[in-house]
Amino acid sequence: MKKVGSQVTIAIDGPAGSGKSTVARRVAEKLGLLYLDSGAMYRAVTLLAIQDGLTADSPELIERVKACRIEFADNGRTILLNTEDVSVDIRTPPVNRRVADIAKIPEIRHEIVKHQQRIGAEGRIIAEGRDLTTIVFPHADFKFYLDASVTERAKRRLADLEKQNVDITLAAVEAEISARDEKDKTRAHSPLRAAEDAIIVDTTDKTIDAVVDFILMHICEGEGGSR
Ligand code: DC
Q: Residue 3: inside a domain, yes or no?
């Protein structure tokens, strides 16, 4: 398998519900790579803001973010905020509603991107989010952009929320996802966009296994790289 034997960086971007977390996790397991869920980091600082009663324009927020510790355990399945396991709390509707406003603050992005690049320096990583292919790892060996229709993405997110016993309608999830897409794509700093050299994958009618196989095929063939 080309490149995967020693050092390899795989970056995946795409909107909420495009399947990138599940796909990246599976590829990480299959290839023995470190998995980095970059959205979890923006969610963790959003939770920190909520817990501290701070909003996106609170002047103290940046200092609080600089001082906090965000760590992953169990190869990305668990996220710790100042040593507390917040893996469930970061995926609740209050965080969903506020995260895009916190994630657009340049100073916060700067801190989080530095942290992600430090994690990536370990060299065998698959990372997913909104700016991994463009800003965090612009020289990644393989870049993918996953997308799907809004309705399909809302259905997937609803299924996740139902597992957590969150009571919400499909229409409400669709509205939340559309609002977040708009904010993520139109923000001034590091907006969500497909890198020119990313392979675009529409996952609307594809199973997770089919997307994983497609990505593994590209990696095996060594065709997806920007280098
Ligand atoms: O992937 P997710 O839904 O967990 O991401 C949560 C939010 O974080 C999303 O609204 C956009 C933001 N985000 C970002 O701005 N940059 C990233 N690399 C990852 C996520």
A: no
Testing ligand 1's pocket by substitution, the residue of 18, 107, 128, 130 carrying the most ligand atoms inside 8 A of its CB is 130
Is 81 contained in some domain?
yes
Q: Read out DSSP for 134-203?
A: III-TT-SEEEEEE--HHHHHHHHHHHHHHTT----HHHHHHHHHHHHHHHHH-SSS-----TTPEEEE-
Q: Which carries the bigger pLDDT value, residue 161 or residue 90?
A: 90
- pTM to 2 decimals? 0.91
CATH number of the domain that 161 lies in? 3.40.50.300
Residue 62 has pLDDT above 50, yes or no: yes
Is residue 176 within 6 Å of ligand 1 at its C-beta? no
Range of the domain at 15: 9-221
Q: Tell me how many domains the chain contains.
A: 1
